[in-house]
Amino acid sequence: xxxxxxxxxxxxxxxxxxxxxxxxxxxxxxxxxxxxxxxxxxxxxxxxxxxxxxxxxxxxxxxxxxxxxxxxxxxxxxxxxxxxxxxxxxxxxxxxxxxxxxxxxxxxxxxxxxxxxxxxxxxxxxxxxxxxxxxxxxxxxxxxxxxxxxxxxxxxxxxxxxxxxxxxxxxxxxxxxxxxxxxxxxxxxxxxxxxxxxxxxxxxxxxxxxxxxxxxxxx
Amino acid sequence: xxxxxxxxxxxxxxxxxxxxxxxxxxxxxxxxxxxxxxxxxxxxxxxxxxxxxxxxxxxxxxxxxxxxxxxxxxxxxxxxxxxxxxxxxxxxxxxxxxxxxxxxxxxxxxxxxxxxxxxxxxxxxxxxxxxxxxxxxxxxxxxxxxxxxxxxxxxxxxxxxxxxxxxxxxxxxxxxxx
Amino acid sequence: xxxxxxxxxxxxxxxxxxxxxxxxxxxxxxxxxxxxxxxxxxxxxxxxxxxxxxxxxxxxxxxxxxxxxxxxxxxxxxxxxxxxxxxxxxxxxxxxxxxxxxxxxxxxxxxxxxxxxxxxxxxxxxxxxxxxxxxxxxxxxxxxxxxxxxxxxxxxxxxxxxxxxxxxxxxxxxxxxxxxxxxxxxxxxxxxxxxxx
Lengths: 219, 178, 197
Fold this sequence. Notes:
The structure holds three protein chains of three kinds.
Chain A: H1 3-19, H2 24-36, H3 39-54, H4 60-71, H5 76-97, H6 103-114, H7 119-128, H8 135-146, H9 151-163, H10 168-183, H11 188-207
Chain B: H1 3-11, H2 18-37, H3 40-56, H4 67-90, E1 94-95, E2 98-99, H5 117-121, H6 127-138, H7 143-150, H8 154-176
Antiparallel strand pairs in B: 1-2
Helix pairs in contact in B: 2-3, 2-4, 2-6, 3-4, 4-7, 6-8
Chain C: H1 2-19, H2 25-35, H3 62-74, H4 76-82, H5 84-92, E1 94-95, E2 102-103, E3 107-114, E4 121-125, E5 138-139, E6 145-152, E7 155-163, E8 167-169, E9 187-191
Parallel strand pairs in C: 2-9
Antiparallel strand pairs in C: 1-3, 3-6, 4-7, 5-6, 7-8, 7-9
Helix pairs in contact in C: 3-4
């Protein structure tokens, strides 16, 4: 047995393996973090990022969150907590929206979950729109919640809008309408309810009288 | 960071540190106010006022008292004011034949108090008794702390807690087995 | 044992107390939002909720101190008055055109903000590592319109504006992010959802 000959090869092989990064992405993520965070925090963030990558979850939002924290001079502990929270929310969002969901849907869904929207609401949205993107519906939902619409009202409004066949354009318009009302002093909950009614009203008139193929109103 | 450290940070000009105190105390304050006042909308208003007043008056905080006690004192006072305002309104409020009363108005879609066993068991209890019970049992404060923020004596508080407990327990049993 | 039973009942009560009812997150966000326009406690000229910027504020001097005492005594109005310029400026921020929420395809996106009486505006977001030095905005002529152009790939992007190097400002009119991970809120823009736009 030529042990001596083999040993150097094994060492070389091991060294080569160690030198190869898991993926180009991982290395560039690490580099970006190390430019802005201390080595220990970078390393701990990378652990979370790598675990997410292993699980097939989007990693860019996690790196972005850490960099956002760095820009705001947040404490290292806070940065780690927030990155971990987001990672968990991404996983939950994917479970609720379905593994086939787009990255943007999962990211928007994660935001909604962190903001207190229950996983149930996400699942119901998916059930109402199995084949089309929910990204904008979720972004609108997040916006309503951010503006002070109580979460159950916001979830209810977006879900009803989607179930009524509201398009992404309809939803964006509803969002603006609600925002305008709130800016003018309306209570957020009521504004959302009125925004929904307006959307439903427009959907109904676009469909036309029962039985007749309605003409789509020019928007 | 401790509460006192966060307060010092805010007063030194790093006003963002106040968010740390909000993070810590918003939910317990909201929970307390909601149970005391019976609905989320009033609770939100009161808690907002409380944190804003606390922020504006932060220089008045002295470390010999815990920040929580100092904050809750403001909260309790705001709740009392809100309760008085609401009491005057409610005398006139009748909603579709259902009396809207202090413990838990049958509210709109956003109001989730209806199902709460504790909320219903507290119906009929006046503000001072609720206050004492919620601070002692809910917030788990000790009697001295409660005394410092309500202005009542410890014996008086013990009596209020006991009476509140009896009232709640009796109704609870009935509601629980309904 | 009545005592043990009492103890158990109290535990149930506590459990109910803690768990029943809606989450307070949205309410807390509204509070933080409201606090963002409060002047710092007992300091006349300090901006609230700064982002970057001085850790310590310079002492204003005798006159300012007297004004502060007066303000403290008389309540809200005086505080607001002392910080009027900053409030007025914040109120005047407006989207330059219709709200930017979604862009059908990846490519160059122009961000625009109307911000009167400011000296600098920077665009920060996940596309430039939230670095305020990366994308300074340019003032159009002598007016109050500031713009910047960035290349955005498909996806969901978060961003905000940094005014005068220290005031963090989400995009008025654009969809808001519901999260405030480090105490401050950003806006969201969706790029590449071609289907329904």
